Amino acid sequence: MVSQAVFAGTVEEEFKIEGLISPASPKALQSALLKKLAVKIIELRLKKTKTGWPVLRLQFDTETISREKIEKVIGEIEDPAGHKYKVHHGPLLANAPLLDEEQQAIAILGDTPEAFPIMKNPITDKAASANRGEKLFVNNCVKCHGFTGNGYGTVAHGFTTWPRQLWAWNNTGEETDGYLFWFITNGRSDMPPWGLILSENERWDLINYIKTLKNPGDE
Amino acid sequence: MAKTIRDPRIRISRRIKKDKVFKVKVKFDHPSFTGLGIVDAETKPVFSRAIPVSFIRNMFVYYGDQLVSRFRMSSAIADDPLFTFKLKAIQEAPIKVVFVDNQGKKWEASKKIKFKN
Question: pTM of the predicted model, to two decimals?
Answer without folding.
Answer: 0.63
